[in-house]
Amino acid sequence: MSKKNVALATVTLTTLFSSSAFAQDAAAGAGGGAQAAAAIGAGIAIGLAVLGGTLGQGRAAAAALEGISRNPGAAPRIQTPMILGLALMESLVLFAFAIAFLLQSKIG
Fold this sequence. Notes:
This protein has helices spanning 3-28, 33-70, 75-107. It is an all-alpha fold. The protein has one domain (3-107): Up-down Bundle (F1FO ATP Synthase), CATH 1.20.20.10. It contains three helices and no strands. The longest helix is centred in the middle third of the chain and has 38 residues, at 33-70.
């Protein structure tokens, strides 16, 4: 199985499992139309944030390692911006995670 297929299967399963977990509380309440939409939105938000963050971090690390391998003397000048970029990408994923939990709190 290729890496793209594995990544697609992982994202699909993550999105489906998280949205179904959030939908459990919505199904228990009365009038679950808007609550179900919020649950599905929270699950999709987590899945897409993880997908985007992972792809971005992988590409950033690969580009930085390629640059360092071509010019080892520039490693300190490449490493610092790479770590800053990785931290900002991770903060966006955590922000989406926090938004999903806020949506979950609106469900119950």
